[in-house]
Amino acid sequence: MLxxxxxxxxxxxxTFAFLVLASVxxxxxxxxxxxxxxxxxxxxMCGAYLTVLTARAGLPLxxxxxxxxxxxxxxxMLLEYFVIRxxxxxxxxxxxxxxxxxxxxxxxxxxxxxxxxxxxxTPFGSFELAGLSFSWYRVxxxxxxxxxxxxxYWIFIRTQFGVHARATIQDPAMARALGVDTDRVYAxxxxxxxxxxxxxGALYAPTMTTVPTMGSAFIVxxxxxxxxxxxxxxxxxAPAAALLAFIQSLLTASYGQLIGxxxxxxxxxxxxxxxxxxxxxxxxxxxx
Amino acid sequence: xxxxxxxxxxxxGTQTLGRGRAFWSSFAVTAVVLTLAPAFAxxxxxxxxxxxxxxxxxxxxxxxxxxxxxxxxxxxTAFFGLAGYSYGVIxxxxxxxxxxxxxxxxxxxxxxxxxxxxxxxxxxxxGVRDVFVGIVTLSITLVMETFMAQTAGPEWxxxxxxxxxxxxxxxxPPLTVPWFGGEALVLEGTPFYWFVLALALVVYLALxxxxxxxxGNVLVAIRENPxxxxxxxxxxxxxxxxxxxxxxxxxxxxxxxxTTWGSYITPSSxxxxxxxxxxxxxxxxxxxxxxxxxxxxxxxxxxxxxxxVRGAQYALVLMGAILxxxxxxxxxxxxxxxxxxVGRLVARKPxxxxxxxxxxxxxxxx
Lengths: 288, 366
Fold this sequence. Notes:
Radius of gyration of chain A: 19 Å
Oligomer: heterodimer
Shape of chain B: globular
Strand order of the largest sheet of chain B: 1-2
Number of strands of chain B: 6
Structural class of chain A: mainly alpha
Helix content of chain B: over 70%
Order of helices and strands of chain B: HHHHHHHEEEEEHHHHEHHHHH
Structural class of chain B: mainly alpha
Helix content of chain A: over 70%
Number of helices of chain A: 12
Mean pLDDT of chain B: 85
Order of helices and strands of chain A: HHHHEEHHHHHHHH
Strand content of chain B: under 5%
Number of strands of chain A: 2
Largest sheet of chain A: 2 strands, antiparallel
Largest interface: A-B, 43 and 43 residues
Low-confidence stretches of chain B: 351-356
Radius of gyration of chain B: 21 Å
Largest sheet of chain B: 2 strands, antiparallel
Distance between the termini of chain A: 43 Å
Strand content of chain A: under 5%
């Protein structure tokens, strides 16, 4: 009995971490600019590759991870500057453009580095509890996920960039009139979202095989979390991930992985039907 | 007679490019050349031509959904894959005697249409809009890929048909036409090519008729402004549902033809990369026109195949680059500018009388 409860709680925490980490980068860009970044998975892939390659070259793992996030962020800002910025007036086209980038990045990586590279070992080992074995690293991930959410909260509430960003979301024209450089805000937001995707890839690099197509392992979950969470990342991401993690873990534990995934999809359709603006939209309406 | 001329006029309505004599004569020449192709081309080339002609259905469906009705569907491959797998499962179970393959063929078109109708109902009547339609449709095709990829075990079988997980299904029988008394006609090689060609011509003309009908005009009205269309009394959701189901059926045609062509279907035909290709073709065709989408699809398929000799990755990188380039600098697609440029070149001929003719012709082509 105890083992079942602990195992289930671990499962929920693990899924929660995965959903939060898979979706924050996507959610920030979507909430800010309305753009669904279909190259999101490729930023994750980029972070994972840099982490694995630099860590194997001798860099300490945390430094390698930060480097992965940093490079993904820089690439994101370049993408914003050269592509997204030209398509502000055509939202659908900017989404299609990110898909083109995704295709180029995945297949380009296949050409450059080949189908797979040697991965990293999961650090920290494991421990036993109530007869079950758990990986320390995977227990840490939910805590890291919460810390990242806290960090985003701090950035958007406390820093000047955050104030400018929130002003730009509310009314870009008025923000510009008051002297906010909205182009810079968009570029930084896109960079921040990409860096977070890169960090996600970096964090999961020691736990999964690094392949050019690894981004697609994250993409459905990230879509689902963003849609359920709604446009306001600060408010929506955590409750959405918690709700979905509970549903997926419950279904996976009872009926297997596939039903778990389909449960996510059905939850999305139900949520969109009942709460078109997601959980955050519902919470904002309730508080008014 | 009156209804016939009216129906023919529909083919030449304002929602389609290529309305002049020059266009229709080159259309006729192309159709005749393609029909006679097996007489002078090797069987390898005929097989290839069949391959080039079986994909545009999916692209035409996307052109209808995205270009004409303004709905962003990223998951046409879900219907493609469902059709392929349906044909595989049903034809393997029924066998190919007595023309039973056509039962599988019909079922493989009905099932994706139904899936599209159900998904469309939940989306459009459920208030899913804009980018969320893209997310939901893409998620559906990716989940279907995940599902099919994990069906490797022997417990995943429907009747006698094993789903075979990641490796996909193979060895389904080709389409056969029972012949009076004699042996059944197997649709392989040249007969299959003629079948695909005939289907392509029929569907192309039918879609030209459809987009110029009242239905097609309402779709464009919805694309331009859904709220206005609703205020004018049109049932916007019903139109969206209908066009989405038609698009699903068209993707289904491609799926079932592809499955019979190569006698296999794999989960990766519903994956992220596969799902991007219809977007590339349709965008390169300029989305809003049936003819340019058709031409762009066939051209890009030929280009991919030529490049794939060096590895599929190179062709896919190029497809991504083409998509990016089209979105950034040529939102009207690649076909129309080329046709216009050729038209201008022809029009610049020195002799004035032919120049006027040519200019008229180029305007007709455009």
